[in-house]
Recover the amino acids of this structure.
């Protein structure tokens, strides 16, 4: 149910975007137009004003500090291997669920990998939860399942719904109600689980003596990569995944006995899902929403970094933006649903509660950064910034904390991923992995207005919003052609950010503040570089324009229709 005004019209969630833009224009007009100056640097009034106006940066610093605690805490809680228990004499029944929607490029690969899993055939079923509307994809799925049922003996079934109610959550819930399996293993269509995945994951639900650990609801595996070296975009994503999974989730699992399900590469105890109320589409991140319901119900969840399930990272900026929009918007929806419970009704120690609040509210960094980069140029121009005390103070306040955080994160994520990559860690390999921090910083800077818009839509938009799939490229390296829903408020936010930062760059150049001008131009360039790539799934620039050289042989081949089978 969406938020509505008294007349019943949908609430315009983009109003915070417009409000920030109006405030930014007014700030620019007043500060750059009239050239007001604040109190003398170092005076009592200067300190009061400067510290007050730096509150967004202070809160960002608290988020960074919490991140440092997680990453350094990994060495005490999380680095050691998690030991599995012992399976009972009669293996439990497992249902592998493969939710998919028009996944022509990867459907065959996903179904084949699921049917190749090592588990007693009489204790294994595979549900292909196919909501596809594309006729070629439906025919492909049916043909692959028929062949594998005959060749492998696996009970693989295709389940289709008349209506796509509840999107992925609705498909998972309908499939859950049709199986009596004790465990549910879930894989998105772009994942290729190793053959021994179940043999390594299911024992964690048992104690060393073979007795079931009924308090453990979820075992989450680490994401690996099938295409991490494909481009600067995939290298940036691989660094984020390595950091988040290997370091953060390992620490959270070992320290607090809770991680959120990442939507794939995890095994749920079916009875726990039933007890928590089943899947529901109240949020775009149905996996995280279900995880917090399990937390409140008293269950534990675990992350096992030693089990790695390779997956395809989004290969285009269009796909990446669709994925990030869904995740950011969905996490804010989870806050709307469960933050009050976490703050006031869930029983936990102060330290554990503080961490769980940080866990749930990490998306607040996006509006904080958006507010900060909007304010900082005006603070510089009026002298209400720490750079007014000297270059060293400016570097210490604005560059050093983020630089140290990036260095720590990149070093640890590059050195501690021994289970994710096959190559031995040498200085050269480490250097290549560490270098991923460069595209990581550029991509994250460029995503700022997009993520701010997703945050605003999650906070003020409808809870039951459309689930937009992340297109997959498969073995061809290119996603199949599909329709893109252009979100114009997001585009407008990006365009405004570029224009605003460039305007300040001009002001700084006129004032001889070359380093400040470079910083503003850098932000504008990062946002613009991602903006022009919107539509790259179809070889487009700026959504609709054909780039130079479109009529080359490779472009013609890219536009050719994909085969049906």
């Amino acid at each position: 149910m969406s938020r509505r005004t008294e007349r019943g019209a949908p609430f315009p969630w983009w109003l915070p975007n417009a409000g920030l833009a109006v405030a930014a224009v007014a700030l620019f007009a007043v500060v750059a137009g009239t050239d007001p100056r604040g109190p003398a640097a170092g005076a009592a009034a200067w300190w009061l004003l400067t510290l007050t106006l730096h509150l967004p940066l202070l809160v960002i610093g608290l988020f960074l500090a919490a991140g440092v605690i997680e990453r350094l805490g990994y060495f005490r809680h999380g680095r050691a291997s998690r030991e599995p228990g012992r399976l009972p004499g009669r293996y439990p029944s497992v249902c592998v669920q493969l939710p998919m929607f028009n996944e022509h490029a990867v459907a065959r690969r996903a179904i084949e990998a699921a049917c190749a899993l090592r588990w007693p055939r009489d204790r294994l079923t595979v549900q292909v939860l196919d909501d596809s509307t594309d006729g070629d994809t439906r025919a492909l799925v049916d043909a692959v399942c028929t062949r594998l049922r005959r060749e492998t003996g696996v009970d693989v079934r295709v389940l289709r719904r008349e209506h796509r109610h509840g999107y992925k959550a609705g498909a998972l819930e309908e499939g859950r109600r049709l199986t009596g399996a004790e465990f549910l293993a879930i894989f998105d269509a772009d994942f290729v689980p190793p053959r021994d995945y179940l043999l390594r994951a299911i024992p964690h639900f048992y104690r060393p003596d073979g007795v079931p650990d009924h308090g453990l609801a979820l075992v989450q595996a680490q994401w690996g990569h099938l295409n991490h070296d494909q481009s600067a975009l995939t290298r940036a994503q691989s660094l984020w995944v390595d950091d988040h999974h290997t370091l953060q989730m390992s620490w959270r699992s070992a320290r607090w006995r809770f991680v959120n399900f990442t939507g794939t590469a995890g095994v749920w105890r079916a009875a726990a899902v039933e007890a928590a109320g089943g899947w529901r589409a109240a949020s775009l991140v149905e996996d995280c929403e279900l995880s917090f319901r399990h937390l409140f119900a008293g269950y534990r969840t675990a992350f096992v970094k030693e089990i790695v399930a390779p997956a395809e990272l989004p290969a285009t900026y269009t796909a990446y933006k669709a994925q990030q929009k869904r995740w950011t918007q969905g996490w804010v929806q989870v806050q709307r649903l469960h933050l009050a419970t976490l703050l006031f009704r869930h029983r936990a120690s102060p330290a554990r509660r503080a961490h769980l609040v940080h866990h749930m509210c990490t998306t607040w960094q996006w509006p904080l950064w958006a507010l900060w980069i909007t304010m900082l140029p005006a603070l510089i121009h009026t002298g209400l910034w720490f750079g007014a005390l000297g270059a060293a103070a400016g570097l210490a306040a604005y560059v050093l904390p983020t630089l140290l955080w990036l260095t720590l994160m990149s070093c640890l994520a590059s050195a501690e991923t021994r289970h994710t990559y096959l190559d031995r860690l040498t200085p050269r390999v480490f250097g290549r992995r560490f270098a991923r921090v460069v595209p990581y910083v550029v991509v994250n800077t460029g995503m700022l207005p997009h993520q701010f818009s997703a945050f605003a839509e999650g906070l003020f938009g409808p809870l039951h919003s459309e689930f937009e799939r992340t297109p997959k490229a498969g073995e061809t390296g290119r996603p199949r052609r599909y329709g893109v829903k252009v979100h114009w408020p997001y585009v407008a936010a990006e365009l405004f950010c570029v224009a605003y930062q460039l305007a300040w760059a001009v002001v700084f150049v006129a004032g001889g503040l070359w380093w400040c001008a470079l910083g503003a131009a850098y932000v504008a360039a990062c946002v613009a570089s991602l903006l022009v790539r919107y539509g790259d799934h179809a070889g487009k620039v700026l959504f609709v324009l054909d780039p130079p050289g479109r009529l080359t042989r490779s472009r013609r081949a890219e536009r050719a229709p994909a085969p049906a089978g």
